[in-house]
Every structure is written in structure tokens, then in C-alpha cells.
Description:
5-stranded antiparallel β-sheet; DUF1653 domain-containing protein; DUF1653-like_dom; DUF1653-like_dom_sf
Amino acid sequence: MENLIPMTSHLQNTSDTAMPEHPRPGLYRHYKGGLYTVLCVGRHSETEEWLVTYKSEALGSYWVRPLAMWQEEVNGTPRFAYIGQETLS
């Protein structure tokens, strides 16, 4: 039993518990033109990485993307640009 490792031992920085700046719920345009509705932001159960849950307005499918990727720019353009609080569905 002395060799057992607590399940949270992989979390090196547990001081990062505050929610970072995150996208507000609403409609966003992807840099390639698609429309997506952000539903919520949550944490991965194992890594505690922040994730954005969103819905494709064209397909009706649900997606999860790391918050860091959601917020990054692609060739100087935001990956997702906020349009407004309205949703299409």
C-alpha cells in the first residue's frame, strides 16, 4: 500500500483553481465561416484543463475544445468571434 499514488498526483499546479477569462454563452463565427453556439465552460475530470462546450448550428452536433485553442488566433484572426447572445436553434 505504501507505493500507491493519490489520483490527483498528476496535478502539479493545484493553485490554478480560478476560472480564467472565458467565452460567454452565445453565437460565434468560426474563422472558416461556420456558426457555433457556446453552451458552457467546464473542466476535464482528469487534467483539470478548461474546455468549451459548443454546438454546430449547421449540423446540430456538440463539440468540446480546449479553452486555450478556442481563444487563440489563426493567421492573425480569432478562431471564434462573438456575434451575440441570440442562437439560431
